[in-house]
Specification:
single chain; about 500 residues; mainly alpha; two-stranded antiparallel ribbon; two-stranded antiparallel sheet; 6 strands; about 60% helix; binds iron/sulfur cluster
């Protein structure tokens, strides 16, 4: 049953957990262990054994982080951004910076983040980040530095909202999560004077105000140095309809003087069926679609045919030496593969599907390709997420226990024998038929959900001619699913485990 506020379950009201989360230092409680972990990974990456399967940096970042992140996104939401270690030096940056600049208006969209995502995928494959503890440590250091610099330069949390590839991935796939920030009572927001959830309650000088809160009642509101800044990604709580751009920092809940912010339980995947929740922007459309496509391309990068393809392209470009592909040749070939399969092909397919959908449905509405593509955008999230789950689950399940001997080895390297000798044969599920069946089930489930979302989107858009308008997008989704299934039937490198190294 929903309470008087209309919120069925508010995580911020759960005894102890809610209190910790709402506390002004609540986020730090989550962040400090993750900062310690990140520093440990950096330290081992720089100083430990340069063997991917025996180093905390590579096993932690490429096997466990990615596996745990998709589980958290599915079960709860954007917990990684909530405890993000990279925002701790950023918070220090806030103290010392004189930030007066807004992020450039032309860049206040997802194009930079799309570029950063593609750059990370490319670097991962070209530089074999998964195989290099040293480079993985440098990636973590670069992350800390970039978030600090952006925080010192700009007013809002520009790094989170417009740049961070990890956050961008989490934003998109947390839209299906069962928890979301919401206003308990939208009527209270209508009369709220300060809109502190977005404007903040921090003030150098103490300011005291008395707000009317309905039925003649009043409440004293205090802004002072103990207050918090408002939403860093500039979301306004009563208008939030998806988890897009929400880092779950909970500053809105801390700032709201009327205790009107809930971290509410909701039906999972609901936002995907809410047509009005999605911005009609090409950057958002491209982001969601290429993220789904890169799920397949990224998995394809771990299979034998990709090496044949790279060899063929590099040979055609004349970038081999004594029959061996040069490093630049591999980079050029990878760039071409990524651009063709990850960007151009899916973007063109969606543009063509939008055009064909309009024509087939012959709607009386004067929709543009962008209107149609935007309406179908959420349909690419379930299948895309399923492909990433299938990929990351493969690494996580085959290497889940590797962290035990790796940590034992780390301790031994530093003269600590308390946990004994490492058993390097510890890994995870080694029967690949089990993992294959799981991957098939996840992708089939994602496809089913994608079709359902697409069917509802089409019905909303074209009313009785919805089935006709659905066909082109159903075909694009089907092609993606078949490509994903074909990829996952290929032998995959068990990166990050002793079976690969
Ligand atoms: S959530 Fe709180 S601070 Fe924001 S508008 Fe509503 S009442 Fe005001
Ligand atoms: S302040 Fe903004 S980003 Fe943080 S939890 Fe609230 S809505 Fe999400």
């Amino acid at each position: 049953m929903a309470g008087a506020s209309g919120v069925r379950l508010d995580v911020l009201r759960i005894p102890l957990i809610g209190r910790v989360l709402r506390h002004r230092n609540g986020r730090v409680v989550l962040q400090l262990p993750l900062v310690a972990l990140a520093l440990l990974l950096v330290y081992d990456g720089f100083t430990g054994q340069q063997n991917a399967a025996q180093n905390l940096a590579t096993v932690g970042a490429w096997v466990h982080y990615r596996g745990l992140v998709v589980i958290a996104l599915l079960m709860a939401g954007n917990l990684f951004c909530m405890g993000c270690p990279f925002t701790v030096p950023r918070s220090l940056g806030r103290r010392f910076a004189r930030r007066t600049r807004r992020f450039p208006a032309r860049l206040r969209n997802k194009w930079v983040a799309i570029g950063a995502l593609i750059g990370l995928f490319f670097a991962y494959e070209w530089l074999n980040l998964w195989a290099s503890p040293l480079l993985t440590a440098w990636v973590i250091v670069a992350y800390f530095a970039a978030s600090l610099i952006f925080e010192m330069l700009f007013d809002e949390s520009a790094f989170c909202k417009y740049v961070c590839p990890l956050g961008t991935f989490n934003f998109v796939y947390s839209t299906g999560a069962p928890l979301q920030i919401t206003a308990k009572n939208p009527e209270v927001c209508k009369t709220c004077v300060g809109k502190e959830c977005v404007n903040g309650s921090y003030s150098v000088e103490t300011v005291i105000r008395v707000d009317e809160i309905g039925n003649g009642a009043t409440r004293q509101v205090v802004h002072d140095r103990r207050g918090v800044l408002g939403c860093g990604t500039e979301l306004f709580v009563p208008q939030i309809r998806t988890n897009l751009d929400c880092t779950l920092c909970l500053d809105c809940a801390r700032a709201c003087p009327h205790d009107n912010v809930a971290l509410a339980a909701r039906r999972p995947f609901r936002a995907w069926f809410d047509g009005g929740a999605w911005p009609k922007r090409w950057d958002m459309i491209v982001l969601v679609v290429i993220l789904a496509a890169f799920g397949i391309v990224n998995a394809f990068g771990m299979t034998p045919p990709v090496y044949t393809l790279i060899g063929g392209i590099a040979g055609a470009l004349g970038m081999t030496q004594d029959g061996v592909v040069t490093a630049m040749g591999e980079g050029a070939a990878l760039l071409l593969i990524f651009a063709a399969l990850g960007v151009v092909l899916p973007a063109a397919a969606v543009k063509a599907a939008a055009f064909a959908s309009r024509k087939l449905a012959a709607s009386k509405f004067n929709y543009s390709d962008r209107d149609v593509a935007a309406a179908f955008t959420p349909a690419f999230i379930p299948l895309g997420f399923a492909v990433w789950i299938a990929h990351y689950a493969f690494h996580f399940l085959t290497g889940a226990l590797t962290v035990v001997p790796v940590f034992q080895g780390f301790l031994l390297d530093h003269g600590i024998t308390a946990l004994g000798e490492p058993n390097w044969s510890l890994s995870g599920i080694t029967d690949l038929r089990v993992i294959g069946a799981l991957q098939f089930a996840v992708i089939a489930g994602g496809m089913g959900l994608s079709l359902l979302v697409a069917e509802r989107s089409s019905a909303r858009l074209y009313k009785r001619r919805g089935m006709q308008g659905l066909i082109p997008f159903a075909l694009v989704l089907l092609a993606m699913m078949l490509a994903a299934l074909a990829t996952f039937t290929l032998p995959m490198e068990m990166r990050g485990t002793v079976f690969f190294d």
